[in-house]
What we know:
Blueprint: H1 2-44, H2 54-74, H3 85-100, H4 103-112, E1 117-120, H5 122-125, H6 139-151, E2 160-161, E3 168-172, E4 175-181, E5 183-184, H7 187-192, E6 197-204, E7 210-218, H8 230-237, E8 243-251, E9 257-265, E10 274-282, E11 288-292, H9 307-319, E12 333-335, E13 340-344, E14 347-356, E15 362-370, E16 376-379, E17 383-384, H10 386-396, E18 403-404, E19 408-412, E20 415-423, E21 429-436, E22 443-446, H11 449-459, E23 476-490, E24 493-500, E25 507-510, E26 525-531, E27 537-543, H12 544-548
Parallel strand pairs: 1-16
Antiparallel strand pairs: 2-5, 3-4, 4-6, 6-7, 8-9, 9-10, 10-11, 12-14, 13-14, 14-15, 15-16, 15-17, 18-20, 19-20, 20-21, 21-22, 23-24, 23-26, 24-25, 26-27
Helix pairs in contact: 1-2, 2-3, 4-9
Amino acid sequence: MNTEKGSTMKTTESIQLSKKAEKGLMIFVTLLIMAILGGSLWLFKIPLFRLDSIGFLMYLNMAVMGLALLFALWGPKVKPGYYTVVPGLVLLFTFGSLFLNSGIFQSEARYNLIGGVEVEDFKEDMKVVDVEKLRILDREDAVRHGENRLGSESGLGSQYELVGQNFTLQIIDGELYWSAPLAHRGLFRWMKNRQGTPGYIKVNATTRETELVLGHTIKYTESAFFGDNIRRYVYLNHSMTARYTDFSFQLDLAGHPYYAITLFEGDHGVYGKEVQGLLTVDATTGEMTYYEEGEAYPEWVDRVYPESFFQQRVAWWGRYVNGWFNPSSEGQLRPSTGTNVIYNDGNAYFYTGITSWGGDESTTGFMLMNSKTGASTYYQVSGATEEKAMGIAEGRVQNAGYIATFPVLISVGGHPTYFMTLKDQNGHIAEYAFVNVEDYMKSGVSRSIETAQAEYMVEMGLRQDTGFILEEGTLEEAQGVVKRINQITLAGDTYFYFNLEGSETIYRMAFINHPLAVLTKEGDQVSFKYLPGELQEVRTFLNHTFQESP
């Protein structure tokens, strides 16, 4: 009996020990999973350690819920729901903060976030653009030119690459340039080149001249890993609680690479963003200098206020003009579908068109924000939206299938004008277009930027002579009697197709460029210059019968 009793006790003790071991193992596995998840979040997300940071609150929620689950499964047995109290409070605090900082309670603060908006006259305030200083290349073009230059350098193309989002537009010595650091091609390339990448690419946005600048070993980049990643380097060596955005790669006056990083706070709720200062980081040494908002920033810095701040402020300025509850949408405005960067009198500006809340194809004006000071200016100019102007330009070359880029707002003779490039199916620039904002019927499109501007200026009455609208080597002349003429509307634009007696060639001219074409009929004597090709596009047109009639 004693033997059996002793055996039973040993079996019970073994079972208890086994359960304790199993429980300990499960606790260890649970903690290990939490540590891996938390470490991964810290490694990749870099959460700020502050209660007004959404990322940190989510981090905290995950940690608290993980601990609650651990105690619920393996902790002391208590009343149901006991372990859900703390996670519930954390979730309530998180979503309560989001709700209290929404537009319902913060509409006035959101509306005023843009600051005092100055209303100016476009013709007086916007400098007339020099065609030789126009920004021709967009970011996509700059990447293509940069990749071609990098690929021509033996040995570098296999180790390094260019990343489109790293390209920054900046004025350097009075010229517009896109610049970007060479980036590591993945983890193993970074491990092989821990000292950094050998330099950066600089592309002239007007002349297309591309330069590979070597001799600057850029240790801190977006493509580096761990402590060499510029974002993590700043996070660990400047502040783990500061809010950073827009790690903009910029060059100083001597061509030395830096990062200009905006620091901001949520002064109007967790969503409102007010610039607090600028942090410059030497991309080669990591040396950091902080400038408080209001201090004199370095002369070479073009951008302090990020484009996202501009987009947010303009959207709220138009949305909350009459508070959050505005069922009739009275007074509300909205930004157009895109933004761009323009330069006026040596300063960089973000700009976007402003349309009615209904979002039609006409603008009520333009909003510009100085990217260095944050000062906003509104120009009341009624006319076509950027998308409408892009459609007009594409319509001029519809059969070619070219795609217009998002336009740049410029001044030509004091007139607000959209300038854009037209790209072929391979993404290469094929033609250039100028479209008047106030009267989109007036435009100029050509394979030569000078000719496109000249054609546009004639349409605007800024020049009377038409001899320079040439492309002299390609335009051909024709004259004769109109045999047949018909009009057709494509994408909202009217075109006239006609041929001459004794010829089967069909010519095309756009009403927006030749409004008197509507008076032309069969039997009229005409002469014109056209661009030979698939469309036989008429560039200049004269109806002798109509002009000579009494």
